[in-house]
Amino acid sequence: MSTPILMLILLTLPWFVTMVATRRPEWRRWGGVVGVALVFAFTGIGHFVKTEPMARMMPEAIPWRHEIVLVSGVLELALAVLVLVPGPRREVGLGIAVLLVLLLPINVHAAISRIPMGGHAWGPVYLLIRVPLQLILIAWTYVFLVRAHARDRA
């Protein structure tokens, strides 16, 4: 259950630090971007540290679950780096939002099946935490990567 809390801390702490440290809007936005990078670095590393438990989160009918977890870990680490690159930030942000939507059914399956990974063992009640967390991640990504980037280009 500590994973969602840790993810929220990683997401918001850089932004809070920049809010206190500076009045410059571009640095405050940078804090929000760094938060996204930290979350995806954390979750990407998790794919290599907790490969088997994450593979069990997917329905058994899905082939190559272990390999999918590893590839998605590489993808999340790449996204963590790419959000720090100003040029493609909007597109990367849109990709992250789509990825978060696509991954939600896996979290629903894991919670319904009570897979002992993270809080999923709590069962469907865990979705009361996980779904809002996904929505926060999507909203944060939109605000700091998609909308902010479009505003910077205008």
From TrEMBL:
From which domain of life does this come?
A: Bacteria
Q: Which UniProt keywords apply?
A: Membrane, Transmembrane, Transmembrane helix
Q: Does the keyword Membrane apply?
A: yes
Annotated transmembrane regions: 6-23, 30-48, 68-85, 92-112, 124-145
Protein name per Swiss-Prot or TrEMBL: DoxX
What organism does the record attribute this protein to? Kolteria novifilia
